[in-house]
Write a structure and sequence with these properties.
The chain has two domains: 31-125, Rossmann fold (3-Layer(aba) Sandwich); 141-274, NAD(P)-binding Rossmann-like Domain (Rossmann fold, 3-Layer(aba) Sandwich), CATH 3.40.50.720. The protein is 39% helix and 16% strand. It is built from ten helices and eleven strands. It has a six-stranded parallel sheet. It has a three-stranded parallel sheet with strand order 3-2-4, sandwiched between helices. The chain has a two-stranded antiparallel sheet with strand order 9-10. Helix 6 crosses helix 7. The chain is globular and about 50 Å long. The chain starts with a strand and ends in an 8-residue tail after the last helix. Bound molecules: NADP nicotinamide-adenine-dinucleotide phosphate. Residues 142, 165-168, 170-172, 193-197, 200, 213-216, 234-237, 272-273, 276 line the site of NADP nicotinamide-adenine-dinucleotide phosphate.
Length: 301
């Protein structure tokens, strides 16, 4: 049996950082250090871990980042007012609000307050609209990271059937749009499954490339995929156990059994998750370049 190819986000992200270095150096020579403002509300442990790893990566690359920690019960007007200040603060080329937000805050209002030109997460309706129109400005980091993994390993979605499980604005929907764009390394036929899909296995078994982004530990089993499928496992789920940490991270795919049938698969951890941070860095560098050139970022209108 042919051995499965492990699609390593670690390898691809190192490649991304390496190729970003000359762009970062060039910005630094012009006196611009790409800067990211991270807004963190409350003390959700998973969000704190994400925010810390983002800050560490920016530090390691000599970039600027600052985290604004806000109390869980912050009134909505206060967070909107902070975002307005950040919109006007030239040290920051990118603004990221860590999700999820506490229930009393309206995520949509918060996202819409970010200046779309600093929206390095790509969640602002203007950026989502540009993406859906096939002329993306900032592409959401996780979907962008998925495309970059496929490109690195020369797995071309063109002409393939890509099945995505999950339709969130963060992963499922934007990745399905990216996959179907009429351009190189896209051009796939796409299907999106969700909790309203009546027979998910019917679709997953047809997938040449299966993207699982649902947040259900090890949901996808070997009998639901065809031989030779390429698996992109976006899920990051904590499953409690009696290990030292008290939990193990698993994806949305039953890795061990599905890997036996797949031709290629992303691991969890070390797959898509690492790429998300690499793409955040790339988007922030792009935003800073935009400022320096006074022009448009790649793909902009
Ligand atoms: N690797 C990374 O960097 C990264 C980044 C973001 C998220 N994630 C992980 O990716 C996973 C998904 O995140 P998300 O933010 O997209 O989650 P989300 O907003 O909760 O969306 C989950 C999607 O999956 C669908 N779904 C859930 N259970 C299902 C089921 N049993 N059958 C069919 N569809 C089902 C939901 O359907 P409905 O729409 O019908 O509810 C929804 O569309 C999570 O594990 C998250 O931690 C990883």
């Amino acid at each position: 049996m042919a051995e499965v190819l492990i699609l390593s986000g670690k390898t691809v992200s190192q490649h991304v950082y390496h190729s970003l270095q000359p762009r970062i150096d060039s910005l630094t020579r012009s006196g611009v250090i790409p800067g990211l403002a991270v807004v963190l509300v409350g003390d959700n442990p998973a969000s704190q871990i994400y925010v810390n790893s983002k800050a560490k990566r920016f530090d390691k690359l000599g970039l600027f980042s600052e985290t604004f920690k806000l109390p869980e019960n912050i009134p909505e007007n206060d967070i909107l007012s902070l975002i307005n200040d950040l919109n006007n603060d030239n040290r920051f080329h990118g603004i990221l609000v860590q999700m999820p937000l506490p229930e009393h805050l309206n995520e949509s209002t918060v996202i819409r307050t970010i200046n779309p030109e600093k929206d390095v997460d790509g969640f602002h309706p203007e950026n989502m609209g540009l993406l859906a129109s096939g002329i993306p400005r900032f592409i959401p980091c996780t979907p962008k990271g998925i495309m970059r993994i496929l490109e690195y390993y020369q797995i071309d979605p063109s002409g393939k059937h890509v099945v995505v499980i999950g339709r969130s604005n963060i992963v499922g929907r934007p990745v399905s749009i990216l996959m179907s764009l009429k351009q190189e390394f896209s051009n796939a036929t796409t299907t999106i499954c969700h909790s309203g899909t009546s027979d998910i296995s019917y679709f997953t078994r047809q997938a040449d490339i299966l993207i699982a982004a649902m947040g259900v530990p090890e949901f996808v089993k070997a009998h639901q995929v065809k031989k030779g499928v390429v698996i992109i496992d976006v899920g990051i789920n904590r499953v409690e156990d009696d290990s030292k940490k008290g939990y193990t991270l698993v994806g949305d795919v039953d890795f061990i059994n599905v890997a036996e049938k797949a031709s290629a698969i992303t691991p969890v951890p070390g797959g898509v998750g690492v790429m998300t941070i690499a793409m955040l860095v790339e988007n922030t560098v792009e935003a800073a370049e935009h400022l320096v050139s006074g022009g448009v970022v790649a793909g902009d209108l």
